[in-house]
Amino acid sequence: MTNEVYQARWPTSGEEREARTVLVRLYGEGVELFFDREDDVRTFECMSRHGHGPRLLGRFPNGRVEEFIHARTLSAADLRDPEISAIIATKLREFHNFDMPGPKSVLIWKRLRNWRKTAKSLCSSDEAKEFCLDSMEEEITALGNEFSGGRERIGFCHNDLQYGNIMIDEETKLLTIIDYEYASFNPAAYDIANHFCEMSADYHSEKPHVLDYTKYPGEESDAEEVENLIKSIEKYTLASHLVWGLWGIISEHVNDIDFDYKEYARQRFEQYWLKKTTIVTAQTAE
């Protein structure tokens, strides 16, 4: 939904004449509005050096060449498979513990403010009113204040852990997380919340922009530590909805990929207001 990705194959000159296979990534339109491409490449190279993803083989002005991973990309149903979900949890903990060089400050609130300004600059006044972009700054500030001062675990987060960014070797069950364009340091609970939200999506259905929130996980736990984490994740789901709602608005104006970004954004914002009411009611009851 952001880039175009191709598999390139050609025969080698060896005796067995096996084909060489690489992945060619063409950057999507307007991606510079979401992240710094040089930061993305530095992250990609660092993860690669430490064995966490494909190798970077080459670069050109609007894309790059990567090592082709011989593994299966997960499907929407895989995210709700208990066995696969347990493997993802283990891998995500490893990801959060990765000591990525550079600043380790939380990025989520700065990203939300920057994307809100960008979305407003691209929207018509009617669109801005429809999506409440003027009042959204207050929502972002309120969310930030809600989490400030807490003892949260901060780690290097993927921030876009949808099923298309996870690959698994069917034989070894080794799992690889790919595509670090939105990766940064953030609360680990936010990364998990974002992953839970992605369980509502099936980007290979007839209507890939339509989300089914009945598939969002929500089981209670008896363990106090786990229960506290679940509550934190629930609140960070709000931030996830705002992030990808704003992403949808911006993408609608800059990307030509065949995807209904505006309707996707509308669903994320609707879930934000529904979820916010539920969470506020629950907190009041406590």
TrEMBL record:
The keyword Transcription does not apply. GO terms for biological process: phosphatidylethanolamine biosynthetic process. One of its GO terms (molecular function) is choline kinase activity. Keywords: Kinase, Transferase. One of its GO terms (cellular component) is cytoplasm. PANTHER family: CHOLINE/ETHANOALAMINE KINASE (PTHR22603), RE24176P (PTHR22603:SF93). This is Choline kinase 2 isoform X1. Belongs to the choline/ethanolamine kinase family. It holds the Pfam family Choline_kinase. CDD domains: ETNK_euk.
